[in-house]
Amino acid sequence: MDRPTFKKTERGFAYSEFEDLYGAKCSLQKSSLATDDAVWLGIDDPDPKRGPPWKPYKLPSDVLVTTRMHLSREQVEAILPALQRFVATGELPEQEGEQVSEDKPTKPEECDHEWDAEISSMWSNEYV
Question: Which stretches does UniProt call biased (Basic and acidic residues) (predicted)?
Answer without folding.
Answer: 101-116
